[in-house]
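User: Hi! Is it possible to get a structure for several chains at once, not just one? Here's what I have:
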Amino acid sequence: GQNIDQPTEMTATEGAIVQINCTYQTSGFNGLFWYQQHAGEAPTFLSYNVLDGLEEKGRFSSFLSRSKGYSYLLLKELQMKDSASYLCAVWDSNYQLIWGAGTKLIIKP
Amino acid sequence: DADVTQTPRNRITKTGKRIMLECSQTKGHDRMYWYRQDPGLGLRLIYYSFDVKDINKGEISDGYSVSRQAQAKFSLSLESAIPNQTALYFCATSAGSDTGELFFGEGSRLTVL
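Assistant: Yes, the chains can be modeled jointly so their relative placement is included. Here is the combined structure:
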């Protein structure tokens, strides 16, 4: 079966750095996405990785290792507005998106 | 105004009632999707459409039907609602397989009593 695992909840401090991990087992791989979802709102796109390595976009970076079936989202200089759920999703061999359950990130002052 | 608009945003109904959730988009995308989101679970695909004449079942299509009335409109129907269809429903659009980014509507929260 296809599976995406990410921690259910994480807590971090304002101004700090947090890393949210995602591991996947899918039938094929055509890319990995990270989305941000604030409570009661729609998911919004953060990043897309298809090749191994680190993609940096401002305070957010996303890393991919295809051989390990592993990705992480790195958030630097945390702000209170970063409190949200972070969704990992993988494009399988049929370009179907398989979604993780999301990681709820709580930022404390 | 939002690029992807869903109506209604909230709906409470009773078991056995027919419900329609509507989605319209101004992004000009051919691909449209309906997802449901439940606490503790990932987004699950109900139906998707790659153009007006194309309708495909997703992971959890039982109990649902869809209609693609135009490129910009994609509606989801529950012919006879049941309590386990209580969920947050999202419509989404995308430009195509080489650009996987999805653009989501604001969501429709449905409660079936």
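Chain A has no helices and eleven strands. Chain A touches chain B at residues 4, 8, 30-31, 33, 35, 40-45, 48, 87, 89, 91, 95-102 (CB under 8 Å).

User: Great, thank you!
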